[in-house]
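Researcher: I've got a protein sequence and the SMILES for zinc ion. Could you write out the 3D structure of the bound complex as structure tokens? I'd like something to compare against our soaking experiments later this week.
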Amino acid sequence: MNSEEYWNPILETLPREKLEQLQLKKFKEIFSWAYEHSKFYHKLYHDAGIEPGDIRTFDDIHKVPKTEKAMLRDIQGEGKEPFPYGDILSVPLEQVTEYHQTSGTTGQPVYQADTWQDWDFHAESFAYALYAQGYRDTDRLFLPFGYNIFIAFWGAHYAAEKLGCEVIPGGVLNTEARILKMQELKATAMGATPTYVLGMAETARKIGIDPPKDLFIRKITVAGEPGGSIPATRKRMEDAWGAKVFDQSGSTEIGHWGLECRYQAGLHVNEAFFLVEIEDVDTGKIINESGKKGKMVVTTFNRMAQPCIRFDVKDLIQWNARQCDCGRTFRLLDGGIMGRADDITKVKGVLLSPTAIEEVVRDIPQLSNEYQVVVTKKGDIDDITLKVEVIPEYKNDEAAIRTKLVDQLRVKTNLGYNIEFHEYESLPRSQTKSRRFQDLRPH
Ligand SMILES: [Zn+2]
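Model: Sure. Here is the predicted complex with zinc ion in place.
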């Protein structure tokens, strides 16, 4: 396969007006498909009094009812046909070739079906991201990822193959063995969560390997956590590896919708394959101006088995008005995913932004990469504790670090925190998505 195909100047540089025409056409197609082939969507739209003929202009899209995770949980699982996907399924069960599920810690996961064509679409959309980040057929990509039922880096694996890269599945190995294998094979690129990218660098140094000097990794694609779009975290990763770090965004139910290009100017939305709308949390109005935070609502155009139409992700994002130097007209998000829109992150009535806490912690070089935020209730009042680790050689600076943390957190999040210092390397480390935010308030 010729990897030049993944820079698609026709799709990626369309003027906005043309892009919206394309998106309207594709929205109509997936809407009609779901209306006709999925009992779940048919009922949803029928009850709302809307049918395919009603979508005529781009603004008509905003009238289509939204979907969300809780609706999918209700129609899936034991006793729901076709098992386990439920009647959102829009193809005969025999056509499903891929199974994945969401990785939420509580409740029933969302079961996700894909046909072989859907799966190819995943690879295709991820390939756009890798190509934009400079991956070519000369790259040897190492994936230190536990290949399992979670979608995570499966898309990257197939995408890199499409580009003609050589893919090393670094699945059932421990961290040390993965590092040694990367070194032995002179891997040039890797994909992992930000937490694991930082953890691997720590492990490497412990076994006497200095990643920038002793390894050959020069491109790292991160996903699964917001770190790639947090400047202080990105800098830590780039310094630790001597590599360029690029953010990428996607999810089980949606697909790989967000890509950062070589210019690292923010997360581009792949608008040829996805429609991303930003909705005002309070008024429900669509936000088109830059710098205004709202909820992300996404439609995936090319996924047929289990369509994703106006899916309310409940993540907070905002547009960036900048034109990227790469020439893509795909819109940019400022700072990637900025937090959650639901109540779980409301503390003392203020929307807590986990990415703002991360930015503060990772910007203090005397602190390790790990931290934890615990929210409890003291009487009627929410109480937040931030647990951090000081790197042993800076043990004497604790008082100054505490003052800096409290001041910076007050500025960036408008909240007060208890600061707890923990032994270096005593906070839990994770190989996948980290759970750094613990809400222990009674519900
Ligand atoms: Zn760009």
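Model: The chain is about 30% helix and 25% strand. Residues 344-439 form a domain with the GMP Synthetase; Chain A, domain 3 fold (CATH 3.30.300.30).
Researcher: Great, I'll pass this along to the crystallography team.
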